[in-house]
Design brief:
alpha/beta; Rossmann fold; Arc Repressor Mutant, subunit A; 2 domains; five-stranded parallel β-sheet; four-stranded antiparallel β-sheet; 23% strand; elongated; phosphoprotein; Sig_transdc_resp-reg_receiver
Length: 223
């Protein structure tokens, strides 16, 4: 579950946002001051942040500048002032999105979901308890690293980039092997998928993630 830090001194709004996000399956942390927010950032691993522009002990612009020195965490900024200057300043400082109060909670949730998805695709993929770090070319299952061969890694990446889509043996052969100019037969796909299942599935004999679609190919099912 994604963990979001809400930095907002209006307690009613803070609690309302927390409730709305948790209803959608997020885990939330809250802070009413920048000092409290800094403590949370240092103590908790976060996936995103909702940051109010004006807080009792400072402004969100300066806080965002400090965050961007060390982190690329997605930031959605809230402000009571609907001015183009504020929005430009926020974007120049590295804010990912900007909303003026009052706002629609439904729109905020949609924008937050988009930011998290964009950030996830840029740095890695998460599905079925499997986390694939594209920058480091590493794979983790329940936060414990699992070691894949080059072919197994590329197979998993191809599946996780195309969840819910049936991939034929021909597509897999062309994507994984033909790109290196290698000649292989259809059985190569089955053998390598069986090996991959041994490493990522809870029960490889009855796979839940990499499903065979008989006569068509394979599909990565998100459960």
């Amino acid at each position: 579950m994604k963990k979001i830090l809400i930095i907002e001194d209006d307690i009613d709004l803070q609690e309302g946002l927390s409730f709305a996000l948790e209803t959608d399956g997020y885990v939330t942390e809250t802070a009413g001051t920048l000092k409290e927010a800094a403590q949370k950032i240092n103590a908790v691993e976060l996936d995103g942040m909702i940051l109010d522009c004006n807080l009792p002990d400072g402004n969100g612009f300066d806080f965002c500048r400090r965050i961007r020195e060390n982190s690329s965490i997605p930031i959605l900024m809230l402000t009571a002032r609907d001015t183009e200057l504020d929005e430009v300043k926020a974007l120049e400082l590295g804010v990912d999105d900007f909303m003026s109060k009052p706002f629609s909670v439904a729109v905020l949730k949609a924008r937050l979901k988009r930011l998290l998805s964009r950030n996830e695709k840029a740095s890695g993929l998460n599905s079925n308890g499997i986390r694939l770090d594209k920058k480091e070319c590493r794979v983790y299952k329940a936060e414990e690293e699992i070691f894949l061969s080059k072919i197994e890694y590329r197979l998993l990446l191809y599946f996780m980039e195309n969840p819910g889509q049936v991939l034929s043996k021909e597509q897999i052969l062309e994507r994984i092997w033909d790109s290196e100019g290698q000649f292989v037969d259809d059985n190569t796909v089955s053998v390598n998928i069986r090996r991959l299942r041994q490493k990522v599935e809870e029960n490889p004999a009855s796979p839940s993630y990499i499903k065979t679609v008989y006569g068509l190919g394979y599909i990565w099912k998100e459960i």
